[in-house]
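Researcher: Structure for this, please.
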Amino acid sequence: MTRMRVLSAILVWGVLVCPVVLHGATVTWDDGGPDKNWSTADNWDGNGSGADGKPGTGDTVIIATGDSVLCDIGNWPGGMDVTLSGGSDLAQSVATLRMSSSSLHVGSGSTLSGGFWDLGGADITFENGAAATMSAWEQKFNNSFTFELGPSGFTTLTPGSLAIAGHNNTTMSNATYIVDMANYTGGAAVIPLVDFTSDGSGTTAETFQWATLIVTNAGTYPDPAICWNDSDDVIELAPYGGGLAWDGEAGDGLWRNPTNWNTDVLPGTGETIAIGNGDTVEWDAVGGQSLPGGLTVNLSGNSTLHSSAVLRMSGSTINVGAGCSLTSDVNDWFDLGGGTVNFEDGATNTVYYWEQKGNITLGFTLGETGFTALEPVQLRSGNSATWSNATLNVDISAYDRSNGKTITLIDWGSHHANFTDTFDGVTANITGHEGGSLSWDTSESQLILHVVPLQGSIMIVR
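Model: Predicted structure, token format:
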């Protein structure tokens, strides 16, 4: 392919001005050459500031053709801004590719591949759906890495070994990791970002925290943190300040298997944990029936906590998000023993026995159209509990009161006699709007919310 070059000199007021190369040109891969090599000039549109119109220092480089581009040059021109999109693959095909403080944006469906990538001074952004399969990922000088999550999370990058160029006085403290959650709509789950085949850098959970770690656009996601998982050499986004979260790694769904938790350690007393990846987590009570005391369990992302034995809450708290469930086998139950259970509209509860014991708290957060009634099979009384042992908190701030005024919160199939004619002793707190009350329908075994309806305006015409 023949390229037309621009004038080599300009005559201004009779003076011959030598050509000036302007950096910052935009050059686009057009696959016009006989091969897929970066170094072949005819593969570019000729607008680059480098030799023969190829990419040069400070240029904006666009590869969006879906081709597999073979980067056969060892050193990139410094300070380029490269965008890889359209399912394109940028494959390193030399001994080492040095990025020379350039920026790289890897779009969804596009891939970085090949051998040893020296990321010296680079800024790299990965969209959800991008891939990285190079054999070695070497952090050098000051690097930044940005991960743009999709609605359900992030497609984990899978490079080979992590290396850190210690001979250049580079440590993890030279790196910045950024997670952008603007598009994320899932639950509070562990999200693996980069899963290295091996770690040649000696990185630990502690030394990884030397990096600058930033989470943006977290919204209502609770206190997320970017962490290093020592056991698997994985960089991950973990909820609750990097606290304990279910990852289901063992594949058996059992709470009691440490491998199913992101730290490979079982939840302990007073911890806050997250189950947010849509799994069914089974409590089978092998080794005991009681949750660790003071535990806070956050269910989100359409996850389920299922009991195939007796689950005793022991003063713990379970927050059940919309789309999430508490379930049990027939004749098994949740012993609420001094615990707290909070339900968002859209949560479900179909446990066989629901045993109130000690002083318990139940919370209900309505949606705009009301509340999806919970349907456990039987309300039982432990240690002679009555409604006087219960505190019921109902938030109706999101509810459109023009939709009606009577809402069933819980519909049990049956109830213990202790809950007949004793509802006057309950503690009820209704927030969000003035006016409202709770009642207990003994004939239907239902907990009922009565909301003062929205009043229409009155116009007086004289």
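Researcher: Any notable elements?
Model: The longest helix spans residues 205-208. Residues 1-22, 457-461 have pLDDT under 50 and may be disordered.
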